[in-house]
UniProtKB/TrEMBL annotation:
Cellular component GO terms, alphabetical: membrane
Pfam families reported for this sequence: Glyco_transf_21 (PF13506)
Taxonomic superkingdom: Bacteria
Name of protein: Glycosyltransferase 2-like domain-containing protein
Keywords, ordered alphabetically: Glycosyltransferase, Membrane, Transferase, Transmembrane, Transmembrane helix
Membrane-crossing segments per the record: 295-318, 330-351
Pathway: Sphingolipid metabolism; Lipid metabolism; sphingolipid metabolism
InterPro entries, sorted: Ceramide_glucosylTrfase, Nucleotide-diphossugar_trans
Membrane topology: Multi-pass membrane protein
Length: 405
């Protein structure tokens, strides 16, 4: 039974790591337009918004509608098209006639080897006038609420931040399978990185930092010091890579809940989430050593995914063979049973806590722990792969000097 004891000890150590991480990240405040002062006159026309797109006609309208409601803090909304063939450019042109701040930039063709979204951001970055001290990246599926940019600027000023990104409110379509899978995928971030609301500063936080490129505000000067978006061109998790570069450079960065200020419908089917989100969720780039990625995966496996199946197996073994177990072995089984029961309760508590990240989730949300083991195995598989496809384009992770193998 020696290996069972070692397994239990490892599981306990990793569980303590996760719990301590959660304790360190509790107490974070949501971003709120009502609880923060509005940006003053000095911040007018201080933000340039970059929206990279590729065949986004069906879902771009809510994003543009939300951006056009933003106040005078936004001086430019630049939509960068990587070569859409579905009429996205026509849609953007129609919106541009409503607001002079909105412009369309063609960035086609996307160079070989580049992450397409990163190329769009880099093309937009190169085209920006130098008059904007802040750059805000917004994904096409994000739905900005009124006062979003004002609240971002106010929080960045209050906390002396060089960058600030939001945990956006998740919207799920009425798709039971997606409601089952999506929360399980999101929970892997909570187990590995803790809760939103943390301020990161200095190289010590490089591998602990969280960020979300769906809504990411960064000082122009800090972004320029990192080389713009070009260093992210081979990354599958470009938002995390940028955040790591910023804190490595000594910048102060925060990741907070956005509440109702920004929502997103990332995927419409479970298949889309399974194929696309698991590609980036390992958060493995040239700045993260392989051992750290492996450790995070083990935390998800042993603390999030295995307690439910292990609890069933251990209970069955205890009931079926109670008389055959030696006293020491019996006590070990009981201890393992108690440990995994506690971890399962922890998982259910996480599910309750994550509920506020969703706007009207389907009933299958509450069954999402059933997907944890399959999700964990898929994340491990994706972390080991170097060659990935994004919208028909081949991306080779780390295919650059200084990249990871």
């Amino acid at each position: 039974m020696g290996w069972l004891g070692a397994f239990s000890a490892g599981q306990l150590v990793l569980a303590l790591r996760v719990i301590l991480r959660w304790l360190r990240s509790t107490g974070g405040q949501r971003l709120s337009a009502l609880s923060l002062p509005h940006a003053d006159a000095a911040t007018q026309a201080s933000v340039a918004v970059l929206v990279p797109v590729l065949n986004e006609r069906e879902r771009l309208s809510p994003c543009l509608e939300g951006l056009l409601t933003q106040g005078p803090e936004v001086g430019l909304i630049l939509v960068i098209d990587g070569g859409s063939e579905d009429g996205t450019d026509e849609l953007v042109s129609a919106y541009a006639r409503r607001d002079r701040r909105l412009r369309l930039l063609s960035a086609a063709p996307i160079p070989d080897g580049w992450n397409g979204k990163v190329w769009g951001l880099e093309a937009g970055w190169r085209a920006l006038p130098s008059t904007f001290p802040w750059v805000l990246t917004i994904d096409a599926d994000v739905r900005p609420g009124p006062g979003l940019v004002s609240a971002l600027l106010a929080r960045a000023s209050r906390d002396r931040l060089a960058a600030l990104s939001l945990a956006t409110e998740q919207e799920l379509p009425p798709a039971p399978l997606l409601g089952l899978l999506h929360p399980s995928l999101l929970a892997t971030l909570v187990y590995r990185y803790g809760l939103p609301g943390v301020v990161y500063e200095g190289p010590v936080d490089r591998l602990r930092v969280q960020a979300n490129g769906q809504c990411f505000l960064v000082q122009r000067e800090a972004l320029a010091a990192c080389g713009g978006f070009a260093p992210l061109r081979h990354s599958l998790c470009e938002d995390i890579t940028l955040a790591r570069l910023l804190v490595q450079d000594g910048r102060r960065l925060a990741f907070v809940e956005g509440g109702s200020l920004a929502s997103v419908e990332m995927y419409r089917t479970a298949r889309e989430a399974w194929q696309n989100w698991t590609r980036s969720l390992p958060l493995h780039d040239h700045l993260s050593p392989a051992w750290r990625t492996c450790l995070g995966w083990l935390e998800v496996l042993l603390v999030q995914a295995l307690p439910l199946p292990l609890l069933s197996l251990l209970a069955g073994a205890l009931i079926a063979g109670r008389r055959r177990w030696r006293q020491a072995s019996l006590w070990l089984l009981v201890a393992m049973l108690g440990l995994n029961a506690g971890l399962l309760l922890l998982r259910l508590g996480t599910l309750v806590g994550m509920r506020r990240a969703y706007r009207r989730p389907p009933w299958t949300y509450w069954l999402s722990p059933l997907c944890d083991l399959a999700v964990t195995l898929q994340l491990g598989r994706q972390a080991l792969r170097r060659r990935h496809r994004w919208r028909g384009r081949l991306i080779i992770r780390g295919n650059a000097p200084g990249g990871i193998a």
